[in-house]
Design goal:
The protein is mostly helical. The chain has a domain of 113 residues: Serine Threonine Protein Phosphatase 5, Tetratricopeptide repeat (Alpha Horseshoe), CATH 1.25.40. The chain has 14 helices and no strands. Helix 7 runs antiparallel to helix 8 and helix 11 runs antiparallel to helix 12. The chain is elongated. The N and C termini lie far apart (136 Å).
Length: 300
């Protein structure tokens, strides 16, 4: 009989302990609700001292900081999280590994997205994105994407109440798009965007010049047709017909030299000079050696 009594006593004690723990949990939860919101702190060295702190293991430290940043960024969408340390993460990684290209392509978009998954239009966020893009343009001067996104940031996203400042933003944006269209990896029809932006600024001559240059130097027939259509809308049918003729003449000049890209062909000065000198073509209609002493010598 003693064993069942001991079992029953143990069960009763366990039940009382369970009830007591539930009561304590409810009281703790109620008390916790009155506490201030927990602050999240992230420990990172300053960007200026990051290389000293990691004793030369810069790329490894950049990879670890990158992983920490992704976890931090994902946590920002949960509960009361925020992105107050995001820029500090980015600055650290850029200081540790300036050639970390993936960081730039990720960060130039991410810094304009808030914790509610909404694209921010705040000027400070746009300027933060521009800061990253300008650093990327210096590190990767042949990558069109950074110049293109930078142009969009200046032309469309950056705002000012001062009309003169706003126009300067748009003009700089147009310049960046024009630089983007000349990069080796740029889409051929990016010139249409550049021309459109210049047209919006009333700079029609510059718009025509952009299209003319790209039409003459692209080998992408579909892109050329699209650019010709845009050129005709801006310049009219007459100039468009002249440009078509010029394009055909340029194509004939390149016959036998298509192994060179069009822009390189232009830089080379066109077809190489004939190695044979045609003296008949250079001859004048006068006897230069037998000229009288008093005769005036004219070579041209």
């Amino acid at each position: 009989m003693k064993a069942p009594v001991r079992i029953a006593g143990a069960m009763a004690a366990l039940l009382l302990a369970l009830l007591a723990s539930q009561a304590l949990d409810r009281r703790a939860t109620h008390a916790r609700e009155s506490w201030p919101i927990e602050e999240q702190y992230v420990t990172l060295p300053s960007a200026d001292s990051a290389r000293l702190v990691y004793l030369g293991y810069n790329e490894l430290a950049a990879d670890i900081t990158w992983a920490r940043m992704l976890v931090y960024y994902g946590s920002g969408f949960v509960g009361e999280g925020d992105f107050r340390y995001l820029s500090k993460f980015i600055d650290n990684i850029m200081a540790l590994d300036p050639r970390f290209k993936r960081l730039y392509t990720w960060a130039m978009y991410t810094v304009t997205v808030n914790e509610k998954h909404q694209v921010s239009t705040e000027k400070e966020d746009i300027l933060e994105s521009i800061k990253i893009i300008e650093r990327a343009m210096k590190e990767f001067p042949d990558d069109y994407e950074f110049f293109w996104v930078g142009g969009i940031r200046y032309f469309l996203d950056l705002k000012s109440d001062d009309p003169a400042v706003q126009r300067s933003y748009k003009e700089h944006g147009s310049e960046l798009i024009e630089l983007a269209m000349e990069k080796p990896d740029a889409p051929s029809n990016l010139a249409i965007t550049a021309a459109s932006l210049r047209s919006q600024l009333g700079q029609v001559e510059q718009a025509r010049a952009n299209l003319t240059k790209m039409i003459l130097t692209t080998d992408d027939l579909q892109a050329r047709a699209s650019m010709m259509h845009s050129f005709e809308q801006i310049a009219g049918e007459g100039l468009a017909a002249e440009l078509v003729q010029a394009t055909e003449q340029f194509a004939k000049m390149r016959t036998g030299y298509t192994q060179y890209p069009p822009d390189l062909f232009v830089l080379m000065g066109g077809p190489p000079a004939d190695p044979v000198i045609d003296f008949d073509r250079l001859a004048t209609d006068r006897d230069l050696f037998g000229a009288d002493e008093g005769d005036e010598l004219r070579l041209f």
